[in-house]
Design a protein that fits this description.
heterodimer, A: 349 residues, mainly alpha, ABC transporter involved in vitamin B12 uptake, BtuC, two-stranded antiparallel ribbon, 13 helices, 4 strands, B: 275 residues, alpha/beta, Rossmann fold, six-stranded mixed beta sheet, four-stranded antiparallel beta sheet, 24% strand
């Protein structure tokens, strides 16, 4: 049924005028607030401004930061967290969170690595993909069917899978000899600049997910569920079905992230990427996606992942201890969530 | 039994019962809704209004009793089957997604895709067609908005309710059920929403209005269904029955046969054909 099917008559009676709810704020502080709120109309603008500022600061304060070689290195350093964060974005958009994504990825990597070590890298890749999708789907199942809070469900799975990867490998790591499994670390070079296939894949995955979120009914429903699950349900959206699909699809991105990781370092190590889950959440949050769900997107996450890596890279170039890098990242997270809380949530019903 | 021409009924229910343990929520309740009317459903708290509405919207399956839509018997299994029969409901809690824009809200759950490969293979939404249809629909209902692309969070409470009503009117082929649509609104916004409801009726839909507000009911209802103790006490016309008499029947201070009945279908209703 479409709205145009019925003939409707306009008798010019009921008028409901649309004025923005609430009074326009006054004063300098309010003006700043309005400008900052305006940035929220283009969610990627805030993180982009932050990234540019950070780039400028490091370019001025260090001599080694601003050159093509280092910038391409930053891109390569971003792909694993960036790809994990794509799946994390989807999950946070439906008001969830995934603490297990790094553990799922690592389990997929070591399973793929062990099978590849047995002589069949193609099969290893497929099984690795399956492990990631199944692992992420277990999250989705626990959350939709048994109604556990995503934080608890994924915290549990994080612990279980981290231990499972060590048990499976007996704490060994598998060096990867297959060219195909490490191909994402390769790519055409132009002098000092290498544009890896992994970087290209990261950009392509971001674009595909942006399309799915902005141009398909599924994407609209993801935002609707994050915004108000009750309203989505009342409007006939299969809320649990969409949430499950979000977790399962995130698993596909974790598999790609694992592939990216083997391209960066060709070793499937069960003790690697311990805090990749927190880094991915950081990238999503700094990228402007609301932890309350329903607002944000993958373009912001792309920028957010770059910010996380630029901060680490730049502070290293400036000769600052890595502990201070963590402190800087922590401040940025608090700043980003605080901005969301004060600018975004105030408008919510 | 005499047969006389009765106005066509959009919806009818007979002998609905529903028990929850020892609690009798519906005790042989009847219901009738004419085509193109606004029927207010009033009753004291605990009279069973909500249970009645839940049966009519498919949210509850009655223990016994029958429901007819356009003269045909129906058995709703869930809200979706009621929706497929052309019955849309606006629930008390605002059923709009505030982060989505007006067009997205109107089409939520029933999005249109682009024709051809872009729609079928790439599942691409036809945003311009949805915007156009949404804008036309809002205009026809006399709801003035700055832009169909406005996020609903930028709208006032009355405007949000208007979007929810417009959505139900867009998809409801036969009946729109409104549960306390003005409960959270101020005077001016209440009037705007009430005007909107009369326009929905004027476009040919039947409206069920559940309300606690007697002034609202007397302002726009064509008939008033008074619910008491799990069943329909009587249906009256606001033209022939005073507000205090309606309240009297509602509370039991006045017997139901003391007011003039405006029932359409003969009561008790005729038995349907046996098996």
């Amino acid at each position: 049924m479409q709205t145009s099917d019925r003939v409707r008559t306009d008798t010019g009676q009921a008028r409901i005028d649309a004025e923005p709810a609430g009074n326009p704020p006054a004063g300098l502080l309010a003006g700043l607030r309005r400008a900052a709120t305006g940035l929220f109309a283009y969610p990627v603008a805030g993180p982009l401004v932050a990234l540019v500022l950070i780039l400028v600061v490091f370019s001025v304060t260090t001599s080694t930061f601003l050159n093509a070689g280092n910038l391409s290195l930053i891109f390569q350093q971003s792909v694993v967290v960036g790809t994990l964060a794509l799946g994390q974005t989807l999950i946070i958009l439906v008001s969830g969170i995934d603490l297990a994504n790094g553990a799922i990825m690592v389990l997929g990597m070591v399973v793929a690595g062990s099978i590849a070590a047995g002589g069949d890298p193609g099969l290893g890749m497929l099984v690795g993909l399956a492990v990631c999708v199944v692992g992420a789907s277990i999250n989705g199942l626990i959350i939709t069917r048994f109604r556990l809070p995503p934080f608890i469900a994924t915290l549990g799975l994080f612990t279980i899978l981290t231990a499972a990867a060590r048990l499976y490998t007996q704490s060994r790591s598998y060096p990867i000899n297959s060219d195909f499994m490490t191909i994402l670390g390769e790519g055409p070079s132009f002098g000092l600049v290498t544009i890896t296939y992994g970087s290209m894949l990261w950009i392509a995955l971001t674009l595909i997910l942006a399309y799915a979120l902005n141009q398909t009914a599924w994407g609209v429903r993801v935002y609707a569920i994050g915004n108000s699950p009750a309203a989505a349900r009342l409007n006939g959206v299969n809320v649990n079905g969409v949430i499950f699909s979000v977790y399962a699809l995130a698993g596909v991105f974790y598999a790609f992230a694992g592939w990216q990781a083997l391209g960066r370092t060709p070793i499937a190590d069960p003790s690697g990427y311990q805090i990749a889950n927190l880094d991915s959440i950081t990238a999503v949050v700094i990228g402007g996606t609301s932890l309350f769900g329903g607002r944000g997107g993958v373009a912001g996450t792309f920028v957010g992942a770059l910010i996380v890596v630029v901060l680490k890279n730049g502070l290293t170039q400036a000769g600052i201890d890595s502990l201070y890098q963590q402190i800087a990242t922590g401040f940025l997270v608090i700043l980003a969530v605080g901005a969301d809380q004060y600018l975004g949530r105030g408008q919510r019903a | 039994m005499t047969t006389h021409p009765t106005p066509p009924l959009a919806m009818q229910a007979m002998g609905l019962t529903k028990r929850y343990g020892h609690v009798v929520a519906l005790d042989g309740a009847d219901f009738e809704l004419a085509k193109g009317e606004i029927l207010a459903v009033v009753g004291d708290n605990g009279a069973g209004k909500s249970s009645l509405i839940k049966v009519l919207t498919g949210a509850t399956i009655p223990d016994s009793g029958t429901v007819f839509v356009d003269g045909a018997e129906v058995h709703f299994k869930n809200p979706l089957s009621a929706r497929l029969a052309g019955i849309e409901t606006v629930y008390q809690e605002l059923a709009v997604a505030t982060q989505l824009n007006i067009a997205q809200n109107l089409f939520l759950g029933r999005e249109l895709r682009k024709p051809g490969l872009r729609g079928q293979i790439f599942r691409q939404l036809d945003k311009s067609r949805m915007r156009q249809q949404a804008a036309d629909h809002m205009k026809n209902l006399g709801i003035r908005i700055q832009s169909i692309n406005q996020k609903v969070e930028t709208l006032s409470g009355g405007q949000r309710q208007a979007v929810a009503v417009a959505r139900a009117a867009a998809w409801g082929k036969r009946v729109v059920i409104l549960d306390e649509p003005t409960a959270a609104l101020g005077v001016r916004e209440t009037n705007q929403v009430l005007n909107l409801i009369t326009r929905v009726r004027d476009q040919g839909l039947s409206v069920v209005l559940i309300s606690h507000s007697m002034p609202d009911v007397f302002q726009i209802a064509d008939r008033i269904h008074i619910h008491r103790l799990g069943r329909r006490a009587v249906v009256v016309s606001p033209k022939t029955t005073s507000m205090s008499d309606v309240v009297g029947v509602m509370t039991g201070a006045l017997p139901a046969d003391a007011v003039q009945s405006s029932l359409i279908a003969p009561s008790p209703p005729p038995e349907t054909a046996g098996p």
